[in-house]
Amino acid sequence: MVRGYLKTVFVALLLSVSVGMQAQEDDHLSDHDTHITDAEDDGRVNTDDEIKSYIEHHLKDVHDFHLFSYTTDAGERAHVGFPLPVIVWTTEGLKAFMSSEFHHDDDASVLVQKGNVTLAKYHSRIYELDNGTTEIAFDEEHHPTNAHKVIDFSITKSVFGLLMIGVLLLLMFVGLAKQYKKRAIPKGFGRVLEPLVLYVRDEIARPNIGEEKHKKFMPYLLTVFFLIWIANLLGLTPFGFNITGQIAVTVCLALFTFFIVQFNGNKDYWKHIFWMPDVPVLMKIVLIPIELLGLFTKPFSLLIRLFANITAGHFVVMSLIALMITLKAQFGAVGSTGLSLFLTLFISVIEVLVAFLQAFIFTMLSALFIGMAVAEHDHPEHAHGEEDDVDEVRERFV
Amino acid sequence: MYNLIGAGLIVIGGGIGLGQIGGKAMEAIARQPEAAGKIQTAMIIIGALLEGLAFGALILGK
């Protein structure tokens, strides 16, 4: 048990030390940094357009871990955070370097030379410049004309967050699992986790999948539940993660559910899609495309719901925080900050609820879809006639 | 322009629907308080399905 705590403390220490170190390093680098932001006001966020682009930047996945920026006594901008590895597949093969080589640049003004390949970062995307060009050019829609995208395997902020959650989940649940070898009731933090695990089993898995089959799917359901929940909660911390607000993450999660449903679908499940029982033949044919479409809309709505909820939540929170800048002229510095903090506090409390609700909904609907695929239907059509069916239904309701 | 209007219409529909779900669930709970848990779960599921539709419209219509 003590070892478990030590591990946690060690990870926390490691994180804080690396943050601190990078802060120092960034001070040295800050003479490079001055040119990256708008020259007039040193990258401070003041106007509506700047607020909008700041929020849009936050909603995207980024290549470095940036906590905050401030102006030093010397009048230079210093950024606090730490770089993350950039791993890209270029025309010359795999290239890996730290994102600090971009010096927080995000509009392709800093070029990184790796062998014969020149790389630039523009709006969180890494581009490779065509041979012979030294500066990136854009067309009217801000698409680069003389550069192409590279395949990006970088450990971005979201990937880093996911790995962190993975480590966290391992620490939490391996510890909990080990305890059951020694005692029936867990001690310490395990007492918080056990009811949650039981909640997923008794409220989500059992009623939707069924008593006999739910055990097989519990690992997946528990994993998505805790992954989404912790990712959502992490998005509410000042670290500014936006993991479940990345469409790639939610697509991946929905694909897992999709494949689990398809691979575990029994004979009845496929029969209900391709040859719906108990309906006229003409209807059976009409229902095939509808059911096939339903196959894909289910995971699609799963991924859109999670993505849109978290994106909208972050957008609202950041917009309310931005009120302290936009309403400064009307209410004064103290009034606008007070109003903004007041509103942000309450919307944050709602977001804590949404964080749990979305994890619950995703797990619940996954369980529901799995349950629909594995359910054993007993069609009484062969046993007795349709009239018996009607009677049976009537009996049940009267 | 038209896609925005369409998205708005769908979101209005979603709002009406969510109101219906919430209202009916309240009535049901008032009528049968012992079934509150089950009603709540069903309400949340249907609410989530509806929300998915509305959000889908918002995202695709943007």
Automatic annotation (TrEMBL), chain B:
InterPro entries linked to this entry: ATP_synth_csu_bac/chlpt (IPR005953), ATP_synth_F0_csu (IPR000454), ATP_synth_F0_csu_DDCD_BS (IPR020537), ATP_synth_F0_csu_sf (IPR038662), ATPase_proteolipid_c-like_dom (IPR002379), F/V-ATP_Csub_sf (IPR035921)
UniProt domain V-ATPase proteolipid subunit C-like: residue ranges: 5-60
A Pfam family that the UniProt record links to this protein: ATP-synt_C
Subcellular compartments: Membrane
Topology versus the membrane: Multi-pass membrane protein
Entry's transmembrane regions: 43-61
Record's protein name: ATP synthase F(0) sector subunit c
Phylogenetic placement of the source organism: Bacteria, Pseudomonadati, Bacteroidota, Flavobacteriia, Flavobacteriales
Gene that encodes the chain: atpE
